[in-house]
Amino acid sequence: MSSSLEKNMLILRSSDGEEFIVPEVVAVMSKAIKNMVEDECASNTIPVPNVDANILAMVIEFCKKHDESEAEAASDLKTFDSEFVNRGQEALYDLITAANFRDVKELLDALCQNVAEMIKGKSVHHIRIQFLGYQLFEILTSNFIWNIWCDRDFD
Amino acid sequence: MRKKSKPRNDKRSKSETSSDSEDRISKFPDEILITIISHLPIQEATRTSTLSRRWRNLWTFTTNLDLGSVDQVRDLETRLGPNKFQNCLNKIFESLKSPSLNRLRICLNAINVQSGSDFARWVDFAIRKCVHEFDLEIVSSKRGQYPYPFLCISNFDSLKSLSLQYENINAKHIESFLSSCPSLERLCLAKSAILSGLKISGSSLKLKYLEICCCFNLNWVKISAPNLVSFKYWGPEIALSLDNVPLLSEVSFLEAYCISLVKHRFKHFTCILSQLRSLSLTLNYPWLTEFPKLDGLRNLHTLN
Questions:
Q1: Could you tell me which chain A residue has the CA closest to the CA of B43?
Q2: Which option is the CATH number for A9-120: 1.10.101.10, 3.10.150.10, 3.30.710.10, 3.40.50.970?
Q3: How distant is the Cα of B290 from the closest Cα of chain A, in angstroms?
Q4: Is the CB of residue B32 less than 8 Å away from at least one CB of chain A?
Q5: Highest mean pLDDT among A38-47, B131-140, B141-150, B265-274
Q6: Neighbouring C-alpha atoms within 13 Å toward the C-beta of B184
Q7: pLDDT tens profile A99-131
Q8: Domains of chain A: which residue ranges?
Q9: CB contact (8 A) between residue A155 and residue B51
Q10: Lower CB count within 10 Å: N or C terminus of chain A?
Q11: What is the reported pTM?
């Protein structure tokens, strides 16, 4: 496969063994991969452990779009970003883990913004139950004192 | 897809989320949680301190201090009373541990701005926190003499983007300001009532984006900025001169100025037409039947 590979292309191998051929400029949007390429410790195929094919494909899609659209209007990119990150919590968290692990700053930022949007306007109870895995009875009992706190604004 | 379908005996009414994704936020490292918090307005960011022990101090590392819109600030102030409100702001300023802020947004009602020292304090705070993006909006219901906020700055190196909405800003302020912010790339000026003419020039200007909007007493604007890429203008008819803008490629005009442009057939514009990639004109006048031919728009990609 690598013999037919064009110049400036890299192969990324996901944790479950699937391979993606990606232009180098796109791949190095991940700082982790960039460092590997710069240190020349990367062969043509770069393993991306901890990231499965499904998520890797999404990350590549995001990086490709951001690479292409450098010249494009910023507003188009914003629309793309907000549509891209609009996913279920499960995929969102997998993406955050991948973006953090591979150090793709723009993606991580867009994803975290999306999580912030989900949290925004919600009560502390709601955040605890929906996002932090608290059980309702825990909130009703052991955190009673905190509850008195949380309905107050910052003061 | 991995899904745990372990039955749980909690009393959650809805489970819109799959059962194993709930506590994943807690497994993220602090940096990610801080990035999430940094996207929240400060009122909500501080509220995360009550989520659990781990979250108690995380918000103080936020890189974005956004006090919310004028209305939100006003609501908070009426609820807390002016003194408590001030204490609140002070507390937030003191608690912040992040060495630098990406964004600082302050919207305030001018009635509450009693003296120049308030401004000086915020600006001082902004400089100390190496703010990259500074939004300052001061709204007043009636015109009066309010202090000018940037009197005392000498060197604001970190500032890349400034958005200023304030009635009492004049050209001199802006010029002295531009010279003390060497890294400034984006400048947005809005709602100045006393600005009559504006000269933005300098060979070392890094300015890339310039937006002027709703300055209704503006008569003339002279721009000479070698790095300027985008210029947006929304306001009355003005004498606009563009000189030494080799990189300018996006131009956007709204309403009144547009009409005069079309009337004069883009007379003062011919020299830069060939370098434009994007030209946006917003006109809302049905009587305008004739639209002049624009020659030389060779590189235009988008025309709205």
A1: A154
A2: 3.30.710.10
A3: 29
A4: yes
A5: B131-140
A6: 25
A7: 998 899 989 999 999 999 988 888 888 888 877
A8: 9-120, 121-155
A9: no
A10: N
A11: 0.76
